[in-house]
Specification:
There is one protein chain. This protein is an alpha+beta fold. It is 37% helix and 18% strand. It is built from two helices and three strands; from the N terminus they run E-H-E-E-H. The chain has a three-stranded antiparallel β-sheet with strand order 1-3-2.
Length: 65
């Protein structure tokens, strides 16, 4: 599949904390990189395997206050 790996800001304890916040507050699932091994601890993985309009909607949800 096609994925983007994004490094998380230092203010976050780990990728799981950021992924949980986005999931519960914005209803967008991002995979915490640690499930793929130790080198993924500071990353989230974003799947690009969906229609472009769904990616745009996810961005809008995350950016919303």
């Amino acid at each position: 599949g096609m994925f983007v790996w994004g490094k998380i800001p230092q203010k976050w304890k780990d990728a799981g904390a950021l992924a949980d916040k986005i999931l519960y507050e914005n209803k967008v699932f991002l995979t915490p990189g640690f499930i793929f091994g130790d080198k993924g601890k500071r990353y989230i993985r974003i799947s690009l395997c969906c229609p472009e309009n769904l990616l745009e909607e996810a961005i809008e949800r995350i950016e919303a206050p």
